[in-house]
Amino acid sequence: MLDFWKHSLTLEAINICIRTICNRIDLMDVRPRVYTNLCPVPKIDDKVHVGLDWPLMKLKMKVFWCLLSLDAERPPSLLIFATTKKSKVYAFNNLNKFNHIFYSVVSGTPNFRKIVQNLLQHNGFEAVTFENDPQAANALVDLIEELTEDGPVLLVLDDVWLGADDLLKYFRFKLPGYKILVTSRSDLPSFDYTYPLQPLNEKDAKALLVHVAPRPYNAPQAEYEEVLRKILKRCNGLPLLIEVLGVTLKGKPLYYWKGQVESWSEKETNLDGVLKLLQPSFTTLEPHLKECFMDMGSFLEDQKIRASVIIDIWVELYGKSPTSSSLAYMKYLDDLASQNLLKLIPLGRKEHEDGFYNELLVTQHDVLRELAIHQSKQEAVLERKRHSLVIQGDNYPDDLLLSQRESVRFLSISTVRSELPETTARLNNLQFLDISDCLGLRKLPLEIGRLDKLKKISMNKCWKCELPDSVRNLENLEVKCDEETEMVLWKGLEEKMINLNVQVEETEHNLNLLRLL
């Protein structure tokens, strides 16, 4: 009997050990939470939207009529065409006819695979890397087929440029319950239904300008009305120009308003005219803000950049000492946003707190980006020592890097390739390398350890990447990454490198991992 009990106790102990091991394996397999709200329809902000009530009402009626039939036989697409302003699609939050509404900005340099990646991740799938566009197209069809089982799906593609037919063909497939809606500044002839959004009429444009820049104190009514008329004529009903120009006029005396009007010439192209109207917004900036604003031209149109990344760039480029605080550069972002020169978007529902910019995205209207590029060209580029280079997509020829290898101090690359160009290792003055979200990246250049001035690497979601042995030659290196990348790539190098400092981004916390400690 005693032997029986001993045997039973031994089996129970073994079972306990097995359960303990299984629990530990399960805990180790738990990955940090990933932000998935990547394709929501933008919410209406608190700004005054003058003159949009009636156009949006008509637009919604058009949507209902054109998308009334949800069978596969009816053409699946509608184009919203706005010649002079970027259209708003916020009105489609309450289209109850659709169970799912997804929103994605396309812009002038579209990345089809990235759009599909975002759609998959938005719907709870793990981020994947596609080898080619047809592979991504198959995944898109599979996703939409699965979603339409729950009800109709509407996909909104915003800011599609002329010549994007090769991209749009992947989205335009017939499937019951699936429709797409496209906004563009160009009239795309391949669409079955088109709704042109008109500029603001004179009454609404005037109301918007008066709201942004009230009448100057003691300004004679007749003179004020004449100046107002000339300003509105040049703005041509474009809300962005009215808002940005209004900020520069707000609180200024009437003679300042007149001076702005008189400075405009009549001999300029449409784009030159727009940039000339925006010129006062740049001229009135402090010198340090001018530099920061021109840096925004390095990013692609409609690109959303983490505020923390931009702040890191500015600290590296303009920080005069190792103790330079990022707080000043956080204020620069707020200053530019207050001038309507860029927009800060909270990642979550709550507004950002002072000093916490990991939860903010920065975006900029493409016209303002053109202004930043225009101003950079006006400056003596070589004298100004343009330091930053931002490359997205797969087309980055080696000669582009070689031509700027002596000046580039900051390099940001977003690609679906499995490796970076070897010429990256020849950027002799490179100090900051940002390769975050390069999900397909498998290795860094073999000779990256030769970059003795490289002091910071940002590489979130790069845990599948392989570090070459030469990386151990880098000294005083600061690495910003997610928890998984830190554990897989950098944990074992702390004792093998001189002053390696790895900082884990604390955007999300996985409390389950704490149990392993």
From TrEMBL:
Highest taxon, organism lineage: Eukaryota
UniProt GO molecular function: ADP binding
InterPro entries: Apaf_helical (IPR042197), LRR_dom_sf (IPR032675), P-loop_NTPase (IPR027417), WH-like_DNA-bd_sf (IPR036388)
GO terms of biological process kind: defense response
Sorted UniProt keywords: Plant defense
Protein name: NB-ARC domain-containing protein
